[in-house]
Amino acid sequence: KGVGLCLYHMPSFTTPVVVTAEFVYIRFHGSGTLYGGRYEKEFLKRWATTIKGFLKDGLTVYVYFNNDAMGNAVINAKELEEFF
């Protein structure tokens, strides 16, 4: 315990949702294509629910969008933020 496992989503791969530290680090690498593609709001809403659970448990949560092609990372970050 104390070493954070990076939770991630990328085309064809998703890590198990396992908390190993007092913080959670989540990376989104793209929907449909690696480092590209825009995530659907419904997908982000499901993650927002998961993140809210982490926060309720007193965990610090870091989220990084790496789907930066076409500015999708910024768009998706703002969309995720709307759920809080």
What does this structure look like?
The chain contains 2 helices and 4 strands. Strands 2-1-3-4 form a 4-stranded mixed sheet. It is an alpha/beta fold. Strand 3, helix 1 and strand 4 (60-65) form a beta-alpha-beta unit. The mean pLDDT is 94. The N and C termini lie far apart (28 Å). The protein has helices at 41-56, 72-81; strands at residues 6-10, 13-14, 23-28, 60-65. The radius of gyration is 12 Å and the shape is globular. The chain has one domain (6-81).
Topology:
Blueprint: E1 6-10, E2 13-14, E3 23-28, H1 41-56, E4 60-65, H2 72-81
Parallel strand pairs: 1-3, 3-4
Antiparallel strand pairs: 1-2
Helix pairs in contact: 1-2
Helix amount: 25-40%
Q: How much is the average pLDDT?
A: 94
How far the N terminus sits from the C terminus, by CA atoms, comes to: 28 Å
The main pleated sheet reads as: 4 strands, mixed
What structural category characterises the helix and strand content? Answer: alpha/beta
Pattern of helices and strands: EEEHEH
Number of domains: 1
Strand content: 15-25%
Approximate shape = globular
User: Nearest-angstrom radius of gyration?
Assistant: 12 Å
Counting DSSP H or I runs of 4 or more residues, the number of helices is 2
Provide the spatial order of strands within the biggest beta sheet. Answer: 2-1-3-4
Question: Stretches where pLDDT falls below 50 for ≥5 residues?
Answer: none
- What's the total number of strands? 4
